[in-house]
Amino acid sequence: MSLVQRITAFLRSPKGRQLVDRGRRELAKPENQARLKQAASRFSAGRRR
Predict the structure, then answer these.
(1) What is residue 9's three-state secondary structure?
(2) How far is residue 19's CA from residue 1's CA, in Å, rounded to a whole number?
(3) In degrees, to the nearest 5, what angle opens at C-alpha 28 toward C-alphas 24 and 30?
(4) Please, how many CA atoms are within 13 Å of residue 9, restricted to the half-sphere of its CB?
């Protein structure tokens, strides 16, 4: 079983779906969105140098 197949199988399992749902709830929070935007801007700024 390839790594992609194993990941897909996990994400389809109840535990995987629970993890995805938790991630979506966390990303819906404004403070986490701000952190993500900050990290993305730092990352992209570092690549421009």
Answers:
(1) helix
(2) 22
(3) 150
(4) 6
Q: How far apart are the C-alpha atoms of 48 and 43, rounded to whole Å?
A: 9
- Alpha-carbon distance of 19 to 10, in angstroms, equals 10
Q: What is the mean pLDDT of the chain?
A: 92
Question: Tokens 């801007």 correspond to what residue?
Answer: 41
Least Cα distance to 46 among 36, 38, 33 occurs for 38
Helix then strand count (H, E) for the chain reads: 3, 0
Whole-number pLDDT of residue 19: 97
